[in-house]
User: Fold this.
Amino acid sequence: MQAFRPVIAIISCHKIVDGQSAQTVYQKYVDAINFHGGNPILLPNTAADGENFEAIMPMVDGILLTGSYSNVAPDRYGAVHIEEKQDLGRDELSFKLLAYAEEHNVPLLAICRGHQEMNVHFNGTLYPDWREVEGFYEPHLEDANDPLEVQYQPVHNINIKAGGRLAAFAEQFQVNSLHKQAINKVGARLFVEALANDGLVEAISLPKHPFMLGVQWHPEVNYDKDAMSKFLFMEFVNHASQRHSR
Assistant:
């Protein structure tokens, strides 16, 4: 008999595909969860609707907030600027999922945009564009003209703090970096797990929660080869399995 595979809900994003409105998730997120023993399901933004949400969430053992082409809406964190790449349906569902995960102790892994959403959920703020902030010098944004394998290659170190979840893995590691928004003020009750050499916040967690972790980089790219990626997804799926057992 096949071992139990916990249900992992992966948030979808709104995009225009061939001129039509679509709900999308990159295949690499689905593959990462499936490879590490989870049973991935995709949540469209309509999952935020009250009756839909109440019907779906009791079936869910873990939540994955993915990276995205879009950025968190400025009014979510008190900023005043023009944000061209918004997805308000994604925002609504993400923050509802974060609140649910916090209240019901559901394991949650937040990647890139998800990492930023997690910080905002706990009343943190973001830099709309880290390039406009003096002091950041690491290559945190890819060159869109490069091939994808170049865009997603490791480009800078992260320094992992003692006492957190990532400390069980290493003290330092090299990660990829593809983002415009970045954490400014860290949210209340969050622990800073890792920083880049220039001080940019690269990972956060919620202490005393079974598993709520946000990372600024993209572990889903080499989910089956990269040591840190395997550590993150295995820990996440294992906690989801434990929650289902309880």
